Amino acid sequence: MKKDKPKYKQIVDAAVIVIAENGYHQAQVSKIAKQAGVADGTIYLYFKNKEDILISVFQEKMSIFVDYLESVLKEDRPASDKLGLMIENHFTILANDKHLSIVTQLELRQSSHQLRMKINGVLKGYLILLDDILRDGIENGEFDKEMDIRLARQMVFGTMDETITTWVMNDHKYDLVSLAPRVHHLLMKGMRA
What we know:
Blueprint: H1 8-22, H2 29-36, H3 40-46, H4 50-74, H5 79-95, H6 98-105, H7 113-139, H8 149-169, H9 180-191
Helix pairs in contact: 1-2, 1-4, 1-6, 2-3, 4-5, 4-7, 5-7, 5-9, 6-8, 7-8
């Protein structure tokens, strides 16, 4: 498995920086190799092409969000708390990696339709976990029993996504994580039973 190879993570992390600083279309494989401190040819031992690198970046980084949320779902706490932790974690990860925030919020959207479809496939696992939180909140009476889960998911993820994109577009000038409780509060206003 390529993920077990020693330079895989090094290349993925380098790709995040190069794509964030140069844009996806200007992020040549040679720049990624230089940033990673490997020979150009080494990249091709791990990845088929630049598109494969971007998908791998997204898979690798998305697993951080998913792993955290899976651990939260195992905890015995109200669904509203789980939702709050999800939002805070999502904001914290991106606030702590400004290059990654540029890649997820801007560069992934510049990619081809086919590439975006592959990325959406990776994102699906995270959204399924969000659905679990919403379903749990409905079942335990915290959230409105008439709530449309699909629409609620779009509202939650869309609000998080837009809040982060605005922060990125404003050059990370303010504290993103401090917005998490306010975003959570607004979303809960729309979902409470």
